[in-house]
Specification:
It is a single chain. This protein has a single domain, classed as Alkaline Phosphatase, subunit A. By secondary structure, the chain is of the alpha/beta class. The protein contains 9 helices and 9 strands. Strands 1, 2, 3, 4, 5, 6, 7, 8 and 9 form a 9-stranded mixed sheet that branches. The relative contact order is 0.22. The structure holds zinc ion (ZN) (2 copies). The site of one zinc ion (ZN) has 7 residues, from α8. The site of one zinc ion has 7 residues, from α8.
Length: 317
């Protein structure tokens, strides 16, 4: 074979390979934004008075004193629907508040941002990830909606060995998150850490505070991992939020539980960091859980007609 033929063959092969690669990892082209990856990190159930509501931010030094300067903080952010785990997370992923079984026995009524993203881009499911310490959150991968049921579902890791009946510690979840970031570069991802909620339900005040500090460190390390990744660095929007708060002191059993509409249960936090967001900015405009999906859809350039949330435009550059 002559040199010229070899050169020609290599050229044909590389064209073929690069177009195959593009097809397996399509980006919607209509997005005017720098954001190409969106990650939602949910710290399950801290009360605002122990996080940003404490002026010294002593239990959340990473978020409250460091990362807050890199992004936008919503001073008035709420769960305006049912304030328990599966309902709060469903509001985040579908953009619709609904009463839903908290035992993991019921799928959300509406499709999630995972499903809309995968359908519209045609991307492989390895580009969308649900990584959760709470096994019952496996429900977030699917929907009851007839047209969408069992379709366009993300990759999941919910509980140990992917067994959704089990709960795993946050360290195991954190390690899985690092693995997913380094191997899959997830375009859309949701992470759940459970320790804050679990220790509070056990009425362990000191452990509850320690869990808030541990989650603060995990959130910081997740951002470091994203910013250390050559592909995700400076192209990722990270939303750090909660599914619900907890009762205020004097309300029922106080920090131990949650689930009603008291200020303590409703008031949560959102800190958003990304290439299209302002830096070191505190926004006073109210925002709420259902707005996260609408904002991700806008940034990533896909449509999400069923979300009832609004795009959090005031935090954009
Ligand atoms: Zn709980
Ligand atoms: Zn309450």
């Amino acid at each position: 074979m002559t040199k010229r033929y070899i050169v020609l063959l290599v050229a044909i092969a590389s064209t073929f390979l690069s177009s195959t690669f593009r097809n397996s990892d399509k980006q919607p082209d209509k997005s005017p934004y720098k954001t190409k990856y969106a990650v939602v990190l949910v710290i399950d159930g801290p009360r605002y008075t122990e996080t940003y509501g404490d002026q010294s931010c002593k239990y959340i030094p990473r978020l409250g004193k460091e990362l807050i300067h890199e992004g936008v903080f919503y001073a008035d952010f709420k769960n305006n629907g049912p304030t328990y785990t599966n309902a709060g997370h469903t509001a985040i992923t579908t953009g619709v508040y609904q009463r839903i079984s908290n035992a993991g026995k019921e799928l959300p009524k509406n499709p999630s941002f995972f499903q809309y993203y995968l359908k519209e881009t045609g991307n492989d499911k390895s580009t969308a990830w649900l990584v959760s310490s709470k096994g019952k959150l496996e429900i977030l991968a699917n929907t009851k909606s007839k047209k969408w049921w069992n379709t366009y579902m993300p990759s999941t890791y919910c509980g140990s060995k992917g067994n959704s009946a089990d709960y795993v510690g946050d360290l195991q979840t954190f390690n899985k998150v690092l693995e997913v970031i380094s191997y899959h570069k997830p375009k859309v991802m949701l992470i759940n850490f459970l320790a804050v909620d679990a220790t509070a339900h056990q009425n362990e005040w000191e452990e509850y505070l320690q869990s808030i500090q541990q989650s603060d460190e995990f959130a910081f390390q997740v951002w470091q991992a994203i910013q250390s990744d050559p592909e995700m660095k400076d192209r990722t929007a990270l939303f750090i939020t909660n599914d619900h708060g907890r009762h205020l002191d004097g309300r029922k059993d106080g920090f131990v539980n949650h689930g009603d509409s008291c200020v303590g249960c409703r008031k949560i936090s959102l800190l958003a960091i990304g290439p299209d967001f302002k830096r070191d900015t505190i926004v006073q405009t109210p925002g709420e859980l259902i707005d996260i999906s609408a904002t991700i859809a806008e940034l990533m350039g896909f449509s999400m007609p069923t979300t009832k949330g609004r795009v959090l435009k005031e935090m954009f550059n």
